[in-house]
Fold this protein.
Amino acid sequence: MQFPESWLREFCDPALSTSQLADVLTMAGLEVEELQPVAPAFSRIVVAEIVEAQQHPNADRLRVCKVNAGAHSADGLLQIVCGAPNARPGIRVPLALVGAELPPGPDGKPFVIKVGKLRGLESFGMLCSSKELGLGDDQGGLMELQPEVELGADIRQILALDDTLFTLKLTPNLAHCLSVYGIAREVSALTGTPLKTHKLTPIAPQHDQKLAVDIQAPDLCGRFSGRVIKGINALAPTPAWMVQRLARCGQRSISALVDISNYVMFEYGQPSHIYDLKQLQGSLQVRWAKADEKAYLLNGMEVQLDASVGVIADNQGIEALAGIMGGDRTAVDDHTQDVFLEMAFWFPSAIAGRSRKYHFSTDAGHRFERGVDPASTVEYLERMTDLVLQICGGQTGPIHDQTTHLPERQPVTLRIARASKVLGMPVTLAQCAAVFDGLGLSYVQGTDCLTVTPPSWRFDLRIEEDLIEEVVRVVGFQNLPHTPALGPIQMLPQPEGVRTKHAIKHRMAALGYQETINFSFIDDQTEKDLAGNDNPIKVLNPIAAQHNSMRSSLLGGLLQALKHNLAHKSQRVRLFEVGRVFLRDAGVTDSAFSVAGIAQPLRLAALAYGSAEALQWGATARGVDFFDMKGDLQALLNRVQATFEPAGHGDCPEHPALHPGRSARIRVDHQVVGWIGELHPRWKQTYDLPQAPLLLELALDAVLYDTVAQYQQVLRQQPVWRDLALVVPEHVNYQMLRDAISQSSCLFMRSTELFDVYKPKLGVASDLASGERSLAIRTEWLDPSVPLTDERVDEQIAVLLQHLSQALNIRLRG
């Protein structure tokens, strides 16, 4: 909500400076997001009239002007050399006198006007455009002022440039503050300054014509007020003061009738619509749309409607989307002579979300879906009628006002003791009553409570806590005492083997990854491609078309973040995210922290792209691969041991997002916890990536628990190492080999490490048969009590080889 300070002070003018007023509003919950001066600083700019304009004798594009600047040209007309194309006799324009300071340029220094000489002729000042004064971007010529403005007057006073624009960031419950009058009502309550109002006296009708309106949907429209005005002048110009105020509210001037409608909306928060009466066919019907009906709107859109959208129609078709936007056919134009003014109350639930459904929003819809005062439609229609008659003329008819039913305001009781307890400070019955009096809330006083009936313009007062908030807003959050916590704070022991989510994030950052936070929403196609999910959980009211489903995997968001980084010329990317995914699960019941049928587990996902190491002189550059990502995962797991099952082998399926030959399923304690691997070539091509990134996704619980380190005495005996070259079948991988070794009955074996893999090339003679390969492992043996001899180690190796032969058909390579 943007508005000029001067307009607010017309309704309520407290003895506060601009910054103090902003502080009062912010502390009351009406956050002032920005304070901006209407015009930049400049001085000695006055109103002047061009009396004479002749061609410069030495320049085709310059004119020599004689100007009258009132008291500033008492000794005669001032000579100004000007190059503006619209410099002509009779117009009044801004004149920068000698010594004037124009707004600062790119260097931050003000531009000082001096006596100059252009092509041999002196110029005693400069005629200014709006761009040169910092009042707009128009470079088409001089800024033309109204012909009645006083010559020699300071331009800042004439255009009310010593004003400030307030921009408020209002929460959805503050619908009553979506107008200058509504904000002034708050300022009056906060400061005790009297609130001024317009005297909106009824206007006597000059004819008896009415337009019949049939409200067929009382759950859509609670009140409909209208009036016919005939014989208007649609070409009448909008007054400069109204154009100026609308511009300072962020609204451009369109035409007098449209401007009046917008002006009343910003002034009192009541949207309205004006129809060209001659374009209406028969009476108006207020109803819900029918399936497959279409509407042609003022913004040029043609929208397909359904029964969830309210409309206003005549005998020919739909003329407006109720509470959102009018139709194109009955819009007023320069030829309009007779109009129908409409002010209505639309139920917020009937308007909310409808404009977003068609991918646009309007000021009217923004207000109606939050709640507009239903009791003042006739009063504000009188205000609008008065402005139309002042600016466009015409003969007004009687107001036709219909009410179906209005929102019931249920009384809310405020207990003084409860308010004191919630606020943490004592408040009295008299204090609370004074707050409600200032806010215009009617109440019934009890012995220790106040029962408030919310006024028609307040849709946010429903429970006792709402009234407590009103009390503290007016009393002042800054007046709350600094009270120490009364509850005992007990430090609970944290198990050593449990890590927090934040500890996991710190560990990922230490491994070189940067955290990213993505939307929990994703599009259907990405869900199907990367998660294999053909039945995603749909979002009922998506913020955008590409966010219409809840994610069941974090990988899609990481790939989008990678695309963004590559577009910004990043060459080495490491990203991770900790977030929830959303899965269908019939076993989940409804509770305070869950939704029935939907599981929301936390997951950790990571992405690595580019070179394995940052650029350096001491190592050859190479691309990141599967084993780099696997090493990072093992570093994250710390002492917890994970096993990896190659995708597509045995009972392990393939992952839809990962390369079938370069990915693996992760198990911890025999439980499947996630996947790791390279992006599938299909999606590498789809995402147009120069190389495939490595991806990891696993349940967060898998890394939250770690084994506690156990003390072991330093052994006095020395270990023995033996290297074994084993011939294994092609389908046997190292993990299977390790599992088999761990199941053997060998004594004294401490560890094994794979250090070589050999498979002969085609056509090369070898001692390996087809379907075999050689795995070289280094084994470590240690007897903690006595030194191991070669004979004892040989015996144990023989036992090991016999077990491997029986379990996996493995033999020692000769």
In short: The radius of gyration is 39 Å. The CA atoms of residues 242 and 731 lie 83 Å apart. The first strand starts at residue 2 and ends at 4.
